[in-house]
Amino acid sequence: MKFRSTLMLLIIALVVGGYIWFYEKKQASTDEQEQKGKLVFTVKADDIDRVELAGGKATIVCVKDKEGEWRLEQPLAYRADKSQMKSICSRFETLNSERVIKGSELDEKKREEFGLKKPRLTASFRARGTEGAISIGVDTPLGSGAYAQAPGAPDVYIINKSIYQVLNKEANDLRDKALIEFEPEGLSKVLIAHAGKRVELAQEGNYWRVAQPIQAPGDPDKIGAMLRKIKYLHVRDFTEDTPKDLAKYGLDSPAYEITLWDRKDQAARTLRIGKEAEKNVVYARRDGVDAVVTVNDDLLKELGRAPGEFRDEKVTRLAQGAVEEIRITKGDNALLLGKSGEKWEIREPEKKDADGTQVRNLLRAVTELKSTAFAIPKAGELDGYGLGKDAMQLTLKPKTGEAETILIGKKSGGKVYVKRSNAPDVLTVDAGFLKECVTDPARFVKKEVAPPPAPNPAKPLPGGMARTPGVVKAGPAAK
């Protein structure tokens, strides 16, 4: 009897649960259909390849090419702003009607009251060969709506009035404000010309170097900061689209000229910066584009650096935690330290456990080294810096990538000369790191910790008493 009752309850629960699931699924599907029914257009934003906006000073036409890039075609030819075009296309896709007023209920007077005889704006699009359009009239007296109508259709929609702000654009609003498009990691070379001088920076792999007028490893922080400022340099104003006199903008003989070469196709992009337009604002123009524009002048500080300022002051860019092997040689003496898992060991001249703290002190001292002066030695001058064949050599091998060797030469006061094997310049650095950089393995041997002394054996007290630390206990003779 008890089993039957349980079974009946289980069946009832399954029936009720199934009904609820079916009802909610049907309800959700109905809601979906209703929401879909409110859409003014059935279109996907990504499928739109042409947009036309009429209602401002001039009709604007934007077209998307085969590569997915948007361009203005009317009233002028120019790259279009990707984010603006994405916003416009998204609004076409999601445009809902809050209410539909049937055409049979409207006369010409009503349409005039709704602002649809002479709409404020008409926006149209093309997507996969099909077209759609909407004309926007005045705002509704109450609420957040606006009257709208598909050209030639009898019905009137009430839509959210915010779409008017999205679509009500002038040509300059839709122009791409980025002056020059590139990715810093995709460049092979950068050339900066200023005041009759030229600085050339070259990127090999992930490393920058100063190529002209000096040769030295480049400072990735300074070069990266400059490239980011160029990349995010945005137009303030479009001054003149077809300039006839570049001299009045200082662009016939620009104050700065920046040329970027793409690593893949070696295509060059050049940006020219002219004279001051107003305080903290200068004129600029990109090759291949006629328009003269204005930009903020905060980039000029980066562009005006002397060649030596792009030189890397750090002796090595290897991170302390990336190094897995260290070799120090001086004459016939050599020391090899290696990392096994999380522990360091001495591998040469004799294998022993290494003191991890001492190894980390050495790595910290070397990876934090910064140059205070630079010199480019002539042929045969390295011996004068102690950087000839008798120089100490410190080689750092990372987990991935190439090993780096640093030559260590003569001391001069509290300084010492060093040279990176991959660069011609001699650096002057603080000599304090030398106390950590030695070939003596005893400096790095892990010290054995002596065990604590064994306790003294207990001695019997007179009368048979036993002695234990802190306790006096009666022995067999005690009464």
Could you tell me the number of beta strands? 29
Helix run count: 8
Which band does the percent of strand residues land in?
35-45%
Rounded mean pLDDT is 88
Give the fraction of residues assigned to helices.
Answer: 10-25%
Total individual domains: 3
The structural class is alpha+beta
Largest sheet: 9 strands, antiparallel
| Distance, first to last CA | 80 Å
Strand arrangement within the widest β-sheet reads 4-3-2-1-6-7-8-9-5
Question: Stretches where pLDDT falls below 50 for ≥5 residues?
Answer: 23-36, 470-479
Query: Whole-number radius of gyration?
Result: 39 Å
Give the key terms.
479 residues, alpha+beta, Immunoglobulin-like, 3 domains, nine-stranded antiparallel beta sheet, 8 helices, 29 strands, 20% helix, 35% strand, flat, disordered C terminus
Description:
- By secondary structure, this protein is of the alpha+beta class.
- The chain folds into three domains: 45-174, no CATH class; 184-310, Immunoglobulin-like, CATH 2.60.40; 320-443, no CATH class.
- The protein contains eight helices and 29 strands.
- The strands form four sheets. A nine-stranded antiparallel sheet has the order 4-3-2-1-6-7-8-9-5.
- The longest helix is centred in the first third of the chain and has 37 residues, at 2-38.
- The chain is flat and about 115 Å long.
Question: How is this structure best summarized?
Answer:
The chain has helices at 2-38, 82-94, 108-113, 162-167, 171-174, 220-231, 300-303, 356-367; strands at 48-54, 60-64, 70-74, 78-79, 97-101, 121-127, 130-139, 145-149, 156-160, 187-194, 197-204, 207-212, 216-217, 237-240, 256-262, 268-278, 281-286, 292-296, 323-330, 333-340, 343-348, 352-353, 373-375, 392-398, 404-412, 415-420, 426-430, 466-468, 471-473.
